Amino acid sequence: MHKILRIDLSKVAGLHVIPYSFHKHFYFFIIISTIFIIFIGIGSVYYPVGALVLSLFLIFLVILYFKPIIGLYLLILIMTIRTINIIMDSPIRHLNEVINLFFIPATILFSIFVFRRIIVKEKLSKNELNTLMILLGGWVFISLFWTIDIYHGVYVSVSFLSCIFTLYLFQSLLTSKTQIKNILNFSLFVGLIVAALTTVSYWYHGSKEIKLFDDAVLSIVLNYESNRPGGLSPANHTSNILNNFIFMGIALLYRANLKRRALISLIILFLLFNVFFTGSKGGVGSLIIGLFFLIFLATPLRKKAFSLMVLTSFILFITLIIVSFISGKGFLQARATAVGGAFSLKTRLEWWGKGFEHLWGSGGLGLGVGGFPKIIDPEAPGAHSFFFSLLFDLGVIGAAIFGCIFLKILLLAKSTVLKSKDRELSFIAMCLISALVVCFIHGLVDMDYIYQPFWVVLGLLLSISNISKSESSTSHIDLKTGL
Are 283 and 289 contacting, i.e. CB atoms less than 8 angstroms apart? Predict the structure, then answer.
């Protein structure tokens, strides 16, 4: 007689599996549904359009409740849209307050996720990384007490909290390699759309403002600036977003068949073309370093390092020629005009110098969340540096907590690369580490610490590390005892 072996993987491997029993909450859903129908019925009489929009929104919330992983796809899509913002007058700065809408879906998804766990009486997982994230979020809100721009500080603190939510959601909802690959496939598709919009914005671009209330407007921009197309993001941000998608696409090549590999390669080349097309020196330079870094990091590629470096250099050179031909001025010539511009490296060094002066003057506490833009107003809306903006706002303590989170995730990723028995999972981790290298290099001279694409890549890398660890634990189960 053969005994049937049953193993609870959620306990053995530590997977984030949320059990759900509908009958336990039957009456709860009946009551909520009845109240919902009554209010929608009344609302339809007086405000039919508003009632319809609210109905669709609530239906979407219900879908997210039962399938929260759908929210991750939504976050990846929305993180690429950075020129659809709410613009309001700032009572403290000359420059307007530009509010990106990413924090709304991230906060909604996190709230649904927490509510779902409360309903099923599932406690939030406790570990060192989650503790560090709570500490960082707490420090951000504490710094509101001494920020020199409370209005901008409130927006930045909420946006930063949504970045922490994003990191937590990715590590909690992605629990298998299949889910990871589905996310990567979707990301490559989104990258194709972003690249297409970037190309189109070279010839067709413009802006539209819709008044919401008082001094608030919804700004929609198909971006084009100084011979540099950007699509639905500033050109510099578009280049970095496309870089991330390029490495996600490379990760999908590992076990793709010939036809699929050819298709993915064509999409990657199109993305590469648009990185050059944006005219971002930081984007192009960080991409080149990231590609060569991956070639030497990944064992399957390292064996063919020389030929791959020659091929990569050839592709980059041809891309440069094509972009130069299309743009008319040429890539190098067009970017040379930006050397003495308002956001040149020399100008940024002056801003950062002011930032360090105020940092030392505050005893290392920093200017408070959202504070740094006030001291360079109206020259620029921010520090144009992910790491300096974090340091100047949150001080040494905030930067140290962030550094611990970043280092912890990198160590987990290193373990995945070196110890994972799944070579494909290891290769995906290498590609995402390379994407982080690109973000790190580009982030030295651009972006800020509420730049969502960085946190999405960090969340994906953390998810892969957790999955690898879980599969490693499962592989040590004794098939006779299940232990």
Answer: no
Please give the angle made by the CA atoms of 193, 197 and 199, to the nearest 5 degrees. Answer: 115
Look up tokens 């219900």; give the residue.
Answer: 62
Angle at 363 between CA 362 and CA 364, to 5 degrees: 90
Residue 380, amino acid: A
- CB contact set of 3 (below 8 Å; sequence gap of 6+): none
pTM equals 0.86
Tokens (6 digits) for 5: 């072996």
The answer to whether the beta carbons of residues 271 and 191 sit under 8 Å apart is: yes
* Residue with token string 């011979």: 227
Give me the tens of pLDDT residue by residue for the chain, a chain 483 residues long: 444 444 444 443 433 444 444 445 555 566 666 666 666 666 656 666 666 667 777 778 878 888 889 999 999 999 999 988 888 888 888 888 888 888 888 998 998 888 888 777 666 666 788 888 989 999 999 999 999 889 889 999 999 999 999 999 998 899 889 999 999 999 999 999 999 999 999 999 888 888 887 788 888 899 888 778 999 999 999 999 999 999 999 999 998 899 999 999 999 999 999 999 998 888 999 999 999 999 988 888 888 888 999 999 999 999 888 888 887 754 555 555 554 445 677 788 888 888 899 899 888 899 999 988 888 877 777 888 899 999 999 999 999 999 999 999 888 888 888 787 888 899 999 999 999 999 989 988 888 899 999 999 999 999 998 888 776 655 544 433 333
Alpha-carbon Rg for the chain in angstroms: 24
For residue 208, list its beta bridge partners: 220
Q: Do 334 and 224 form a contact (C-beta atoms < 8 A)?
A: no
Q: Which amino acid is at 410?
A: L
Q: Which tokens sit at 299?
A: 């064992």
Nearest residue to 409 via CA among 159, 244, 170: 170
Decide: helix, strand or coil at residue 476: coil
Q: Which residues contact 425 (CB under 8 A, 6 or more apart)?
A: 177, 180, 416, 464, 467, 468, 471
Quickly count: other Cβ atoms within 10 Å of residue 460's Cβ. 29
CA distance 373 to 380: 7
Please say whether the beta carbons of 459 and 75 come within 8 A. Answer: no
Residue 478: strand, helix, or coil:
coil
Distance CA 85, CA 220 (A): 7
Element (H, E) at 218: strand 216-225
- CA–CA distance, 229 with 232 (Å, rounded to integer): 9
